[in-house]
C-alpha cells in the first residue's frame, strides 16, 4: 500500500476507513484490469501514484454538501471513485459509453459499498440533468469536453476559498495550452501539479478549472 509521504496528501484529512476503501479499490482495479484492460499494463505497479493519487489531486479543494458531480468518461472509475471516497456527503454520477467498463465499475462500487455513487452506461451528451460540477481525466480535447458538459452545469453558490467553484475540473497534460484556443466565453484556470507534488511523473500535468465566464486564461 502507498505510504503517505507528500504533504499535500496528508492535508486531505482522510480517515483510516477512507484510506482502507482506497486500498480495496486499488485491489479491485487491479483485478478488473487483468480482465478488461481498464488501465495500461505498465501502470499496474504504480496505481497509487499514477491513478488514485492523481485523481485525488482534485480533492485539494472541497466540494460542498449536496453538490452533484458528473464524472465524464469514467473508464475504470477514475477520478470518480477516489473522489466519492474522499467526499461521502457528495453525490457522484459516473458515465461511460463502454458497456464492459460500466459493468466493472458497478461491481467495484457495489463491493466498496459507495452509496453516494451512481454508474450509468451511455453518452454524456444525452444526459438531461444539471450538475454543480463535472470532472474528467482528459478523455477528449477541452473544446469537446466543454461542449458536452457546459449545457449540463447549473449555477452553484459562490464557493468558500477552499472549495471548488461550479464548472468543469480536468486533469490534463500540457496539450491543454493548444486546446484552449477552441474555447469561447469560458474562463480557464490552470495549476501545474508539479507546484505541489514535485515528482517526475507529474511533469507537464495540470489541474484545470473551466467555468462559463468571459474568456481568459490564468495560472494559479
Written description of the protein model:
The chain has a single domain, classed as Vaccinia Virus protein VP39 (Rossmann fold, 3-Layer(aba) Sandwich), CATH 3.40.50. It contains 7 helices and 8 strands, in the order αααβαβαββαβαβββ. An 8-stranded mixed β-sheet has the order 3-2-1-4-5-7-6-8, sandwiched between helices. It is 31% helix and 20% strand. The chain has 220 residues and is an alpha/beta fold.
How is this fold's topology laid out?
Blueprint: H1 7-10, H2 16-36, H3 47-56, E1 68-72, H4 80-86, E2 91-96, H5 99-112, E3 117-121, E4 133-136, H6 142-149, E5 167-173, H7 176-179, E6 187-192, E7 205-211, E8 216-219
Parallel strand pairs: 1-2, 1-4, 2-3, 4-5, 6-8
Antiparallel strand pairs: 5-7, 6-7
Helix pairs in contact: 2-4, 2-5, 3-4
CATH class: Alpha Beta
Category by helix and strand content: alpha/beta
| Number of DSSP helical runs | 7
Give the biggest sheet. Answer: 8 strands, mixed
C-alpha Rg (nearest Å)? 16 Å
Q: Can you tell me the residue ranges where pLDDT is under 50 for at least 5 consecutive residues? A: 214-218
Short description:
This protein is an alpha/beta fold and 220 residues long. It has 7 helices and 8 strands; from the N terminus they run αααβαβαββαβαβββ.
